[in-house]
Specification:
Strand order of the largest sheet: 11-10-13-18-15-16
CATH class of the largest domain: Mainly Beta
Oligomer: single chain
CATH architecture of the largest domain: Sandwich
Structural class: mainly beta
Distance between the termini: 7 Å
CATH superfamily of the largest domain: Cupredoxins -  blue copper proteins
Strand content: 35-45%
Largest sheet: 6 strands, mixed
Number of domains: 3
Number of strands: 32
CATH topology of the largest domain: Immunoglobulin-like
Shape: globular
Length: about 525
Amino acid sequence: MRLKVKIFIQQIIVFLFLLGLLPAHAFVHRHRFIIKEAPYSKLCSSKNILTVNGQFPGPVIYANTGDTLVVNVQNDGTQNITIHWHGVKQPRYPWSDGPEFITQCPIRPGTNFSQRINLSDEEGTLWWHAHSDWSRATVNGALIIRPANKTNYPFPRPAAEIPIILGEWWKSDIQAVVNEFLGSGGDANKSDAFLINGQPGDLYPCSTNDTFKLTVEKDKTYMLRIVNAVMNNLMFFSVANHQLTVVGTDGAYVKPFKSNYITISPGETIDVLLEANQNPNHYYMGAKAYNSVVGVDFDNTTTTAIIQYRGNYTASSPPILPDLPNFDDTNASFNFTRSLKSLADKTHPINVPLNITTNLLFTFSVNTLACEDESCGGPNGDRFAASVNNISFILPRIDILEAYYKNIQGVYGDEFPSFPPLNFNFTGGSLPVELQRPDRRTEVHVLEYGTNVEIVLQGTSLLGGVDHPIHLHGYSFYVVGAGFGNFDKDKDPLNYNLVDPPLQNTIAVVRNGWAAIRFKADNPGIFFN
């Protein structure tokens, strides 16, 4: 689901940034990303995949709060690509945000593009990934942002910090998977495996040696920086016999709480502390997909990695498995997400907008487009589509930021509606077929600088409804409320959390439910949703 949020750019400030006349951040880190194909073997077969520097997952990037990254991206692959820095606000510098034809044209094969990534108040785990077609399935990596003085975590410093990237693997070429579902109009073929740090784990065929292993010492505490780089699935994650202490999400701290599992949305990051307090042994960490839609085929396999205690002992064989929630346990998924609350202490204050000046209601739907000969792979021979407020976005051929900046006419319209054009029972059991047909346009919504914004993200039950992962570029937002069914503008705000709501950049709106988010429109630019 995608939506543009456009805030008029303050051209003088952008110009000063381009000239380098504004003060620099504390440190500038320089990296070179070479996009190229590399051979990888998994699940009894081999293929070439698109990578950064031949690595899968890609290199982990380390920085501190307030630093600047300069990344030169050289495209030695065979397809266009861009790189998005997921969760970085890019204050007053949207040019390097990354989504193709939104803030830049794609980087063509044989060319390069230098990105400047301005970190501001982000602190914790974020990530970077390709933002063109499905290239991000293999072109991705963690971005770890530590406190500015490198010591002041709001909890005892862990013995080690380990990125845990949840990924996905198809035996087929990933571009072939994309071409197939775009051509047929149906759903994408399900993946053949999920991955932890690029490895499926030894529950899959031919994967005894393709298992990520983490060695720990008894009574020490470790931080797992978990990224959900899976394409579309929410994931359950757990470690056998170990409770996890959740301390952060999406580059912001939360009030610590213990849980036997986590639920993590596509694109979301969660930081947890793992205390190695069990008898020395081998323990599986595992992850599997959450799926709330009956009758939809999905990858129901479980990926595993192994936590192995250091020392002399006879390990259990096989290792002890974690107790993950059932794949369709909606309450487990929703309740975990609702447990997230901002740390909101003196050192890490929050600023929830209270005086809302712009109220928006966006409906998110699965739709269909007519297929001329009714031979497409969607329902009733139609083609699957998706919409926000009944508009299915058409990607332009000139990036919208350039079109705005250079006043190029005809690239986009600015009439994206503040509310759905039709008011109906959004989560009703039987909806008219005509509601399935969206308009197809390139529209943006204009926000005035400095306004306090509340957006109610409302799922609909069209075609049964799905959980909708929503990511807002250029901003983090406070999730002040969420629930099932239709949002009630009179009753639901009475239960908002305005004291310590979590600060996030990615959230999954529960199937046939809603979420309410707030933010201040203080970052000029053109940003994707």
